[in-house]
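ok so for the tutorial part 2 we go from a plain amino acid sequence to predicted structure tokens. step 1 is just haveing the sequence, like this:
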Amino acid sequence: MNHDQDEHLNDSSQQSGAGVGADAGEGNADETAALAERLAAVEAELAEVTEKWKRALAETENVRRIAARDRDDAGKYAITRFARDILSVADNLRRALDSMDKEARQTDAGLDALAGGVELTERELLATLARYGITPIAAEAEPFDPHVHEALFEVPDQSVPHGTVVHVLEPGYMIHDRPLRPARVGVSKGGPRPGTAPVGVEDGAPEPAGGGAGERLDEEF
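step 2 — the prediction. this is what the tokens look like for a chain of 221 residues:
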């Protein structure tokens, strides 16, 4: 009798242990699944925060770059209005020199001394402007460039390429890499296109005046 009771107790204990083990296994699986979900949520949140941080960093860098560029521009171009006004002084000095007769300077010591003083003043003014990045624009005999030249009239001339600057009425100036004042010029018309020979050069026939590239430049101006 006692032996039968012991076996019954052992069977009950084993069944109870098996049930407890099964419950524990299910509990661990549920806990693992919950932890996996929490980890996935944390990783997704971390990825979102990281993306926002990268965007904020990029925007901050853009703002810093723009601010640095604006600061540099302010330093380089702050005197633009003043420089444009002072160019009239350089223009008047050059006009004064051009109005003095060279032969008269040779015979009149006083006039020559005055002209020398004006020349010295002009050189000093241009040197001062150059120290602040203000330099003359090349124009004479250069191809017309609408970015730095202002065409006031056209001159029929087949001896030079069409669109060549043949007269400079007023010199232009750059301030660093920007035009401060365009050069006011006269431009040739009717000559060959740059890099090509005039029509009829090989057989000696003259080029028709006002044709081809000349008409194109008329439309441009």
